[in-house]
Design brief:
The protein is an all-alpha fold. It has one domain. 86% of the residues lie in helices and 0% in strands. Helix 2 runs antiparallel to helix 10. The N and C termini lie far apart (41 Å).
């Protein structure tokens, strides 16, 4: 029983340790939720959580082999992610300018975004970052160096990671929804979008420059 609790606490610590640092994808999620609804943001949050959980499962089952296989592709994957994020940042910026000029197409574009599309978009964006797999492998190897995890302990560990990641991502989505309600005016939302696009681009640059 004690080992299960320790696995759960370790999983929560690992999940929050990965999810809490705010990156470009998190800022993108907050901005998108502010421009649409909590339902869309929650779907995005679950997409990001799914990617984290998949990487955690891969790390638990594959260990060093997986980390070694992913490492050579980490730089190309980061550049692909940066390209997508840069495109989205520019698109958000242009959309904000259109809103400021009263162009209605931006509003219709937001209305066309559905939860499934939001989910798959953030699942893909989060999956493009190989860091979670390497991060989880390092943590799991550290734990197994002390005492090897049983199958049930590994399940509890992964479930705790899922809870931590989902709770934080949903908190971000909730913050985006609240932010959107506070800035209900056209100019307020446009200002939010401009700030978000700059942050996304800056965080994307830091992601590839730190390779």
């Amino acid at each position: 029983m004690v080992s299960m609790i320790e696995s759960a606490l370790a999983g929560l610590w690992a999940g929050y340790g990965l999810a809490v640092p705010v990156g470009a994808v998190a800022v993108l999620m907050v901005n998108m939720t502010a421009q649409t609804s909590f339902r869309i943001g929650a779907a995005a949050a679950l997409g990001a959580t799914t990617a984290d959980v998949v990487y955690a499962v891969i790390a638990v089952t594959g260990g060093v082999t997986v980390a070694s296989a992913i490492r050579p592709f980490s730089t190309p994957l980061r550049w692909v992610a940066f390209g997508i994020l840069a495109f989205m940042a520019i698109r958000i910026f242009v959309t904000a300018l259109r809103r400021g000029r009263g162009v209605g197409s931006a509003e219709r574009e937001s209305e066309n975004l559905r939860p499934l599309r939001s989910y798959t978009m953030f699942l893909g964006l989060t999956a493009l970052n190989p860091w979670p797999a390497i991060y989880f492998v390092a943590l799991i190897l550290g734990r197994q160096a002390q005492e090897r995890m049983t199958g049930m302990e590994a399940v509890v560990y992964v479930l705790a990671i899922a809870v931590a990641s989902a709770s934080w991502q949903l908190l971000l989505a909730g913050g985006g929804a609240m932010f959107g309600r506070l800035l209900t005016g056209t100019r307020g939302r446009a200002l939010t979008a401009v700030v978000s696009s700059v942050l996304i681009l800056a965080l994307g640059v830091s992601m590839v420059s730190g390779q």
